[in-house]
C-alpha cells in the first residue's frame, strides 16, 4: 500500500468510521461474555438460584440489546468506508503485512 | 380432525405455490427486472435455512429435555452475525473476488487449489450432512404420523417409510428443477433463494402463531406463562457449563462451515452491503424463532401424556386442543423448515460433489487436456442432478438404517460437529498467511477421523456399526481409545468430549503441519490474496451500474479493437436491445459477446479479466493473472520474433548495399586499371612498332642508325617486360599466392645488398646511415631487399635537391623494427600522400620512367611479411617508414 501523506487529525470522519469498525469487531466479544454470565449463577437446589423466567428475561434481553447495537452500528458504518469519502485514507485498519 | 387427505392436499398446494414463486423469481431474474429479489431482506430470510425442522420441532423437544440449553444453538450464530466484521465479511469478499462456489472450493482455493483437499472436505461434508437430511425426512414423517394418529381413517404407522421416500423424491424433483436449471458461473439460484425466503416467512409465522396461541390462548398472558414455567420441571435454572459454552462455540463454528449456510451466506450473496442488514436482522430472526420455545415445551409437558414425543409439541399441542387450523399451519411451518434445508443442502453438496469429484474423474477419463467445449455443460448439469439425487438417497438410507429413533437434537449436533472440522482450516486460511495445505490436510484428516470415531459411528447406537464391546472397552481392548473417553479421560459429556478432542487435535495438527512444512508458491499467492483481501479488492458492486459501465466498456473496447469497430459493435448491440445511440445495457449476453470480440485481440483470459474489472463482477484471481501472463508472453514472443526477423532483414539489406557499393567500386577500379594498363602497354608498343617500321622500310639506313633504332626497340621491349614482370609480381602478391622464403639474417646485410644493387654509393647522392645496424631478422630476405631497393631507387629518381641526401635510420620501438628512408627533396604533397601506394600512381615527372607499380608492390610485400610501409610526413623531404614486427627474442634486446 502506498502511504499517502495525511494531515494530522483532519480526517475526523474516517477516524470515526474506523472506531465504529473497531466497535463492530468488539461487539461479539462483549456478547459472548454477557452470554457466558449465566454460567456463574448458582444452580439447581442451591439457595439464590434464579428461576428460568428470570434467566429467559436476562438472555433474551442481552440478545435484544446486541441486536439493537448491531443495527445501530450497521446504520452508522458506511458501505464503502474510506478513501473516496473524503480522501482521508483507509477506513479499515491496515492488515498486518509482516507475517509470512 | 384434519384428515390426512386434507393434509396432503395442503402440502401439494403449498409446494405448487413454491414452484410458482421460484419460477417467477427465475423469470424476473432472467429479464433483469428483479431488484426486489436482491434486497437485504431476501438475503436475511434466506439465511434462515439455518433454522431447519430441527429448530422448528427439535428446539421444543430439546427444551423439554434439557431446559435452556437449546438457546446455545441460536446464540452462537447470532454472535457470528453480530461479529460480521470479523469473518463473514471476509468470507463474502473472498467468495466474490475468487468466484468461490462452495466451502470445499474456498478451502481448496486457499491452499493452492488443492483438489485433494476439496475431495476431503466434500466427503466430510456429505457424511456430515447426511444425518441432517435424514433428520428432516424424519421430522416430516413424524409430523405426518402425528396427524394420522389423530385421523381414525388413516393408514397404519408402518407406512412411515413410504412418507419419507415420497418426501425425498419430491424434494429431489424440486431441487433438480430449480437447482440445476442454469449453470451460472456464480452458482446463484434466484428461484431457490426466493422460495426459501417465502418458506422462512412461513415457518416464522407458524412458530410465532403457535407461541402466541400458547402464551395468550392457553396460559393467559406473559405473567401467567412465566409463573407456569417456574412451576414446571424446567423451572429451576439448571445448565451444564461445559455444554453451554461448548455448544455455543460449536453452533457458531457450524454456522460458518455448514455447506448450506455457506451457500446462502457467501455464494448466493448479491451485495456485500446486505451483510450489514443481516448482521442484526438475522439474530433478530433467531431470537423470534426461539422466543416461544420454552412456553410451548412447558405447556406440552403439562398438557400431554408423559409418553408423547416432546419433539412434536409444536404440532401436538394445537392438535390436542382441537385447533386444527393452527395445527395445519404449524405442520406447514415444519414442512417448510425441512424442505428448504434439504433443497439448499443438496444444491450445495451437489455443487461440491460434481465440481470436485465427478468432473475431475470425468475429465480424466476423457483423455484429459481437452479444452472446455459445449457438451461439458450437459455433463456438469447431469453430474449435479445425479449428485442431488444421490445426496437425498443417502439421507433416506441413513433414515432407514438409524431407524428414525434418536432425538432430533442429537442427530443435528453430530452433523454440526462434523462440519465444524473445517473451522481450523477455514479460519486459519482467512487470517493466517502461513497456514498451508499440509497443515489443513493433516488437521482435517485427524479431526474427521476422531469425529467419525467418537461421534458419528457411535450415533447409530451400540451394535449397529460399532459393537457394544468397543464402546465399553475400546477397540481390541485398548482402553484409551474408547470412543466416549479418549485418552482415559472419562466422565465428560460424550458430545462435548468428541467435539473437544476432535477440534483440539485438528487445530494442533493444522498448526503443526503449517509450522513445519513449506507451502507451494501457489499457496503463498493465494494465502496473500485471501488474508489481505481487503487491501486489493473493492466492495462488490451490484450489476446495476448501467450506462456508466457501458461507457467504461466502450472506452476500453475502443482502445483494443479500434474506435470505428468498437462504435459499430456497440451500436449494433444497442439496436439489438432496442435502444437508441451507442450505449447498450450491459446485459450478460452483451458482455459475453464483447468478451469474445476482445478475446480475438488480446486473448481470452485477458479479455475476461478486463471485463471483470469493469463490471465489478469479479476481482482478478491469481489463475486469471497467470493466464493473462501466458497470453502476454505469447504475444511478446511473437513480436520479439518479428522484431528479430526485421532486424535480420535490415542487416541483410545493409550487407547487400555494402556489397553492391564494393562491387561498383571494384568495377570502376577494374575499368581504370584496364585503361591504365592498356595505356602503359601501348606507349612502348607504339615506339617499338614505329622504329621497327623505320628499320624495315627505310632504304639505305646506315649501321649506326640501325643500331640506334634497334637499341630503342630493345629498350622499349625491356621496359615492357619489366612492366609485365611487375604486373605479374603484383597480381601474385595480391592473390596471396606468393611463397615466402623465410630465413634468418641481419638487417645490415639486406641494406648493403640493396644499396649495392641500386648503385647508390657510387652515384651523386649522399647516403647517411643511422641507428642500429646489427638487428637479426627472421623474414623473407629477398622480398625485404626488393622493398628497400625500390625505396632507394625512388629516392634516386625523384629527389630533386641540388645535393641529394638519403638518410636511412634504423630503430627498434615497441617490439617493431622501423626503417626510415628520408631524402631531402621536396617530398610528396599532402593530396598525393593518400594515393602513392595505389597502382599506376605516379607523381611529378612522367619521364622518370617506371609504371607506378613499385610502391604498390612494396605495400603488398610488407603486408605479406606482417609489417607495413607508410609515408612519414613532416621530414623535409619524402620519407617512408618500413615497419616490421620483430620476433619476441629480438624485441627483448
From TrEMBL, chain A:
UniProt keyword Transmembrane helix present: yes
Alphabetized UniProt keyword annotations: Membrane, Transmembrane, Transmembrane helix
Start and end residues of each stretch annotated as Disordered: 78-100
Q: Where are the transmembrane segments?
A: 20-41, 53-74
Name under which the protein is recorded:
Uncharacterized protein
Automatic annotation (TrEMBL), chain B:
Spell out the Gene3D superfamilies in the cross-references.
1.10.287.130, Histidine kinase-like ATPase, C-terminal domain, Sodium/glucose cotransporter
Record has Transit peptide as a keyword: no
**What GO terms fall under cellular component here?**
membrane
Q: Where in the cell is it found?
A: Membrane
Alphabetical keyword list: Coiled coil, Kinase, Membrane, Phosphoprotein, Transferase, Transmembrane, Transmembrane helix, Two-component regulatory system
| Catalytic reaction annotation | ATP + protein L-histidine = ADP + protein N-phospho-L-histidine
Histidine kinase domain: which residues? 676-888
Q: Which residues form a coiled coil?
A: 639-669
Tell me which family the UniProt entry assigns to this protein: Belongs to the sodium:solute symporter (SSF) (TC 2.A.21) family.
Q: What is this protein called?
A: histidine kinase
Q: Source species, please?
A: Pseudooceanicola atlanticus
